[in-house]
Specification:
This protein is α+β, with helices and mostly antiparallel strands. The protein has helices at residues 3-41, 59-70, 74-85, 104-113, 121-132, 141-151, 157-160, 164-176, 186-203, 216-238, 248-273, 277-281, 287-294, 298-327, 331-342, 351-356, 358-370, 411-415, 418-421, 455-472; strands spanning 88-93, 96-101, 118-119, 184-185, 376-381, 385-391, 397-401, 406-410, 473-478, 486-488, 492-494, 499-504. The mean pLDDT is 91. Keywords: Heme, Iron, Metal-binding, Monooxygenase, Oxidoreductase.
Length: 510
């Protein structure tokens, strides 16, 4: 005889549920009307929309992207989507509006002219917090300004020009190569090179992972760090669904990395508290020591240092690997590079000399343009605002943006745009850079106030390594039939490594 009771409860639940659904529809409806009114008032038009099969969460798009990434075809898929829907189009990203754009005007607007209306904190803090905490790459506004001011002096011209320390690590790399020119994979070696150089640059102490007796805890650290990045990549892709990411190994890897970094921080704080430290640290700028002078909050220091170490550890190594992947398959380009470098005799490879090597610089730019380490970036609107173009039938009208909408800027799309780069946009052609100035059409480091602070350092280090190789090797040839295929972590690198054979010209040169 309890049925009526159950019946009463069921009826009430049903009515409550209907009320909630009705309220939801009303709120959505009112929001939409407001959106249309504001859009018209601003003279904005709608961008083309991705034709979702799932109109509520856009899960169809999400699964297609996941599959493309798993099958190493995320980059061509992204290019094909722009070709189909236009340079700017809208998707439903798990219930939220997201605009994809490869249009230089829109990218410049979000990253520079309309900078104050866009941020990354709401996008990153939940995803990256367990690893980074609150630092340079997870905050906006005043917190970000403070962090940026802390790292700025690290990338001063005088620091960048100091290539002597990089030279030592390149020596270590060259010593790892078999004397008979037998096949070797350069990709992990470049990764270690940059790890060794960046740990010296940031912590004042290199991990020396390229030395034969590199300690085991250093290798554990590299493995753990790489797993942290892998986990971060998964969380980025999961977006709102990141609560599904439950991985003990990831948490353990974070612990290993934090422990190691904390050891450097402890030393730096001790040094900062030592009144004689000025003499000890004056010979060169070490980021962690400088930061410890300004703050001794160890958790905050860890966040800041990881924010610089993460891109510092990985991206330049990827960029070098990508360029060498091409050079090993293009003897014509390698020989022209070698002529330019050998043409400078055995002069010291200084910042100025490297900058003056125009063909070499063209190779670096083509590397960043055609084989991206960073292909795209995201921002969320912090206020209602607009994008300058992409709306309406002809794509020339502005697009109205509501607070909370997200933009994905595709630097890869922009760098492959035939309207900008010509019909041979996909080709690796260093000569195209002769006399070319590409402002906001070539943005591997993006631009505006949050542009990559390490841009000059990256290009200088890459140039130095290229010149050292050109001096040392008469030829470098691919020992791998695979074309460049993307392997995606936070950035992109070659899935099959960079396996080469080579012939020493002379092993000397600096
Ligand atoms: C191939 C090498 C690199 C590329 C292509 C690259 C690219 C970028 C890009 C596109 C951004 C802007 C991201 C955004 O606005 O969403 C950025 C930011 C940043 N990069 Fe790099 N980067 C590279 C290497 C490095 C290195 C070696 C370091 C440090 C040693 C570094 C440190 C940073 C930092 C700290 C930021 C955040 C700046 C801020 O939010 O104010 N990057 N990088």
């Amino acid at each position: 005889m309890k049925l009526p009771f159950y019946g009463f409860e069921f009826g009430l639940t049903l009515r409550l549920l209907s009320a909630v659904v009705l309220l939801y529809i009303c709120v959505r409806g009112a929001r939409y009307c407001l959106y249309v009114r504001s859009r018209k008032r601003r003279g904005c038009e709608e961008p083309p929309k991705y034709p979702h099969r799932d109109p509520f969460l856009g899960l169809d798009y999400w699964f297609e992207q996941r599959q493309a990434a798993q099958e190493s075809r995320w980059l061509p898929t992204s290019k094909a989507l722009f070709a189909r829907h236009g340079k700017t189009y809208e998707i439903n990203n798990l219930g939220q509006r997201m605009i994809h754009t490869m249009d230089a005007q829109n990218i410049q607007s979000v990253w520079a002219t309309d900078f104050k209306n866009w941020g990354l904190q709401p996008l990153r803090e939940g995803i990256a917090e367990p690893f980074f905490g609150h630092g340079l790459n997870t905050t906006d506004g005043e917190l970000w300004k403070h962090s940026r001011a802390l790292v700025r002096p690290t990338f001063k011209r005088t620091e960048i020009a100091n290539l002597e320390f990089l030279g030592r690590h390149v020596d270590h790399l060259l010593q790892q190569l078999p004397d008979d020119g037998a096949m070797v994979d350069l990709q992990p070696l470049f990764s270690r090179l940059i790890l060794d150089a960046s740990t010296e640059f940031l912590f004042g102490e290199s991990m020396d992972s390229l030395l034969p007796d590199s300690p085991q805890d250093c290798l554990d650290f590299i493995r753990a760090f790489d797993y942290c990045l892998y986990g971060l990549g998964r969380r980025v892709r999961l977006g709102q669904l990141r609560f599904l990411h439950r991985d003990r190994k990831w948490l353990e890897s974070i612990r290993i990395v934090h422990n190691r970094v904390d050891q450097y921080i402890d030393k730096a704080v001790e040094l900062a508290q030592d009144p004689r430290s000025v003499e000890k640290t004056s010979d060169r700028y070490v980021l962690i020591n400088q930061m410890a002078k300004q703050s001794q909050d160890k958790k905050a220091l860890r966040s800041e240092i990881l924010a610089v170490f993460m891109p510092g550890r990985d991206s330049t190594g990827h960029a070098l690997s990508n360029v060498f992947h091409v050079l090993a398959r293009r003897p014509d380009i390698y020989q022209t590079l070698r002529q330019e470098v050998l043409g400078c005799g055995d002069a010291e490879l200084s910042f100025e000399l490297l900058k003056s090597m125009k063909y070499l610089q063209g190779i670096l730019y083509e590397g960043h343009r055609t084989l991206p380490t960073t292909a795209q970036s995201y921002r969320m609107a912090l206020n209602d605002t607009q994008l300058p173009v992409g709306g309406g039938k002809d794509g020339n009208s502005p697009i109205y943006i509501r607070k909370g909408d997200t933009v994905m800027a595709s630097m890869w799309g922009l760098h492959q745009d035939q309207e900008i780069w010509g019909e041979d946009a996909a080709e690796f052609r260093p000569e195209r850079w002769e006399g070319l100035k590409a402002i906001w059409t070539f943005v591997p480091f993006l631009g505006g106030p949050r542009t990559c602070p390490a841009q000059q350092m990256v290009l200088t280090q890459e140039a130095y390594v290229l010149a050292r190789f050109a001096r040392a090797f008469e030829r470098i040839e691919s020992a791998d039939p695979n074309p460049w295929t993307e392997a995606r972590r936070i950035g992109f690198q070659s899935k099959y490594g960079v396996k080469v054979e080579y012939a020493f010209g002379s092993k000397i040169g600096n």
